[in-house]
Each structure stands twice: as C-alpha cells, then as structure tokens.
Amino acid sequence: MTLRKYLVLAATIVFASFGDISLSYGMKRVGAISAARWTELIAAVFNPWVALGIVLLLGFLTCYMSALSWSDLTYVLPATSFGYVLLALLSILLLHEKVTLARWIGILLVSSGVAVVTRGPSTSRQQPGPEATGAGEPS
Amino acid sequence: MSAIRTWSAIAGIVLSSTAGDVLLSRAMRQIGDVGERRRREGLAAVVKAVMTHPSFLLALFFMAMAFFGLLLALSWADVSLVVPASASLSYITNAFAAGLFLHERVDRRRWMSALLVCAGVAVLAA
Questions:
Q1: Who contacts A124 (Cβ-Cβ below 8 Å, separation ≥6)?
Q2: Contact yes or no for B123 and A44 at CB 8 A
Q3: Looking at this predicted complex, what is its ipTM?
Q4: A113 with B120: Cβ contact below 8 A
Q5: Mutate to test the interface with A, among B94, B115, B117, B121 (most CBs of A within 10 A)
Q6: With an 8 Å Cβ cutoff, are B120 and A31 in contact?
Q7: End-to-end alpha-carbon separation of chain A, Å?
C-alpha cells in the first residue's frame, strides 16, 4: 500500500460521511413519501441538500471504484467503515452530543475491525508472492 | 404490517447494495489499477473503459435500486433502524458474496473484521 492508496481510502471515507449527512438532512426536509407516490422520490432529488449529498456520493463512488481497482472488496469495505467512527467523533467534538457507553463500544468495535483488516494484505488476487503466504503488506 | 414493510425494504437495500458492490468490484478488477492505466493511456481511455463495462452498468442499476430503496425506507421508517440494519448486514452479505462470486480469499482475518464492523456499525448507528 502506497501513500496515494491510503489517501484514496481516506477520501472515500470523507466523501461517504458528508454525503450521508447531507442526504439524511435533505430527506428529513422533504418528509415522508408513500410507496404509492414513489414518483415523489424523483422530485426529492432536486432538494438542494439531497442534490449536494448526491454530488458528494459521486465523489465517494469515484474514490471507491479506484480503491476496488487495486484492492479486494472484503478489504475496502471494512477499511472504509472508519467513516462511522469519524462521524461519531465529529458529532461528539463539534456538536457536543452525549457520549454514551454504547457509542464508545461501537467506536471500539468498528476501529478493531478496521485495525484487523488493514494489518492484512489488501488483495488476494496474485497467488504466488508474499501476500499469499500470509506475510502481508507493511501497514 | 409496517414492520414487515420496513424489513422487506431493508432486505431489498441489502441485496441490491451487495449485488452492486460485487458487480462494481468485478468491473474494476477487470479494468485494472485505474491510476496506472490513467498514466499509460490517459483519463479519457479509463473513463471509456469504465462506462462501457457491462458489469459496471449492471452495478449502477443495482446501486440506484439500493439508493432509491434507502430514500423510500427513510421516508417511512426511523433512520436509527434502517441505516444501521442495512449497513451492518451488508458487511456480512458482501463477505459471503465476495468469496462466492469474486473468489476472494475471505480468511479468518477478513471474517473477523466484517463481524466486528457489522456489530460496531449496528451499535454506533442505532
């Protein structure tokens, strides 16, 4: 793993986190949409917050696709789940939300999952070589 | 009734997003390292290779299904149920699907990571 690849993974995390926040905020403003009136979902796309969320999620998709071009899906998904920790820490630090015990446990569990996967090889595609022998990459 | 509707939507989101992720991963694996390819052939060639790849187009369809499924579910159920449930379950279904369809070596380390993240996301996002 090179610095460039770690930066792509970091950008994936940041785009996904802020994209989700924007989308969630926008849909709260749009309000409930029933299954029978599903066409209202198309109108919801033009809400500025939903639109911003989509732009950010397109940034996420670009970085995510780049990561998938050189890493396994079962590496990229857990590694980028650190976004959940980022979101929780931001809400604690910036929004001064209450830090419950459950929240600390969640942060610990996700961080452990990220630590476990990133200490291993990022791909299982090439059979011979150090990765296949379980030696892993320097992390 | 509303619980059945909500969990059906969650199941739909999980299956659609897993199909999207697996197809996207397959497309990008076949295209190769986009950074290296961009240096060799230029950005336009990479964009063309991605946009015309059948697996990518199919992945887009499933990701759009998952996206609109999420919007629909968010409009009628609590975000505190839909997001953690669909996000955390996706880590498990993706680990299964990556082993089955992408032939990734999902070893004990990868499974442990998927389970830890799954549990953590469920606790954090709830």
A1: A72, A131, A132, B104, B105
A2: no
A3: 0.87
A4: yes
A5: B117
A6: no
A7: 7
Look at residue A133 and tell me whether its pLDDT is greater than 50: no
A123 DSSP 8-state letter: -
Identify the CA nearest to A114 among candidates A76, A60, A72: A76
Mean pLDDT, range A82-107, rounded to an integer: 80
Q: Taking a C-beta distance cutoff of 8 angstroms, is the pair B109, A117 a contact?
A: yes
d(CA B124, CA A78): 15
Within 13 A of A138's CA, how many CA atoms are on the CB side? 2
Of B71, B110, B118, the CB nearest to A27: B71
DSSP string covering B16-70, please?
HHHHHHHHHHHHHHHH--HHHHHHHH-HHHHHHHHHT-HHHHHHHHHHHHHHHHH
Task: Quickly count: other Cβ atoms within 10 Å of residue A108's Cβ.
Answer: 15
* Closest-approach residue (CA) in chain B for A115: B113
A106 to B121: CB separation less than 8 angstroms, yes or no: yes
- Interchain pair B112, A116: CB under 8 A: yes
Model pLDDT for residues B16-75, shown as the tens digit of each residue: 999 999 999 999 999 999 988 988 999 999 999 999 999 999 999 999 999 888 888 877
How many CA atoms within 13 Å lie on the side-chain side of A106?
22
Q: Round to whole Å and give the CA distance between B63 and B43.
A: 24
